[in-house]
Design brief:
Elements lengths: L4 H7 L13 H6 L6 H9 L9 E5 L5 H10 L2 E6 L4 H10 L6 E5 L12 E7 L11 H5 L3 E14 L9 H4 L19 H9 L4 E8 L3 H15 L8 H7 L4 E10 L1
Helix pairs in contact: 9-10
The structure holds S-adenosylmethionine (SAM).
């Protein structure tokens, strides 16, 4: 760590997320894979009803920080499913957290999941669903893993307004390492209204509600800046572009619903 734990704690202070504030800040920033996943999970869970013993699929869990949060905060049993991070690496983190009887790491691709239909009480997905879930055909097959009436909730990077013409210049400006913030996979970012329509047109889901995190870009920047100072970013910081954007286009979208 390039800075002290106290300094890091100060940089991560955000009154919107009291549950997340209890976690070791060094552990949190070492788990960097995008916007602060504990904050995203805490915000998502405001709209979900999670109870002890529920079976929860954490889809695209990355380094399983959200799975650990769900197990600790809500007593859920969590299947920590990811593609890029090996299950053995997550198992190590799960054991270190003392949650080996509550969290089960699985390495599986989103279109080849090894679970029984109707197995889960709830599915969550943080900063991951945009990689595979924008296809109209994805949700109807994925949601079968939920019991009827089971809850699904995602948080994804998204757009405050649609991009109809060319990508705004500030999102395409070359950064220090010459890469651009906006790459083709960013076309998986959509507005809350887009997600609302994407899910609620389907017969397999009910009670769909999509919204944007108020000032989400500020929380995203705060976390990027803290990780930059701590030296835990793996890629070039996105903070400069997010600051230039100032919430005009980039934000964080939450979408929840229940299986019919
Ligand atoms: C940006 S990371 C976020 C990880 C974690 N949820 C977090 O917020 O820290 C996106 C995650 O989605 C997962 N992912 C992307 N495409 C996937 C796919 N086709 N099947 C399963 N997981 C996928 C990756 O393995 C990766 O860990």
């Amino acid at each position: 760590m390039k800075i002290s734990k106290n300094k890091l704690q100060e940089l991560l202070k955000n009154d919107k997320y009291p549950r997340s504030a209890k976690y070791d800040p060094e552990w949190v920033v070492k788990g960097w894979m995008g916007p602060n996943v504990l904050w995203l999970t805490e915000w998502l869970c405001e709209k979900m009803e999670l109870k002890p013993g529920m079976r929860v699929l954490d889809m695209g869990c990355g380094k399983a920080l959200s799975s650990i949060f769900l197990a600790k905060e809500y007593g859920a049993q969590v299947w920590a499913n990811d593609l890029w991070i090996p299950a053995a690496e997550n198992w190590q983190r799960i054991k270190e957290a003392g949650l080996e009887n509550q969290i089960f790491p699985v390495h599986a691709e989103a279109h080849a999941l090894p679970y029984a239909d109707e197995f889960f009480d709830a599915i969550v997905s943080l900063d991951s669903y945009q990689y595979y879930g924008t296809d109209d055909l994805y949700l109807p097959s994925f949601i079968k893993l939920l019991k009827p009436g089971g809850q699904i909730g995602i948080v994804v990077p998204g757009l405050m307004q649609d991009i109809d013409g060319p990508v705004p210049e500030h999102l395409m400006a070359p950064r220090q390492n010459r890469s651009t913030f906006w790459v083709d996979e960013c076309w998986g970012f959509h507005t809350a209204a887009w997600w609302q329509r994407h899910w609620s047109k389907l017969a397999c889901i009910k009670d769909v509600a999509a919204d944007m995190l108020p000032d989400g870009w500020k929380d995203w920047v705060q976390y990027e800046d803290a990780c930059e100072e701590a030296g835990t970013l793996i890629f070039a910081t996105e903070a400069d572009v997010l600051k230039a954007d100032a919430g005009r286009y980039m934000g964080l979208v939450r979408v929840v619903g229940r299986r019919q």
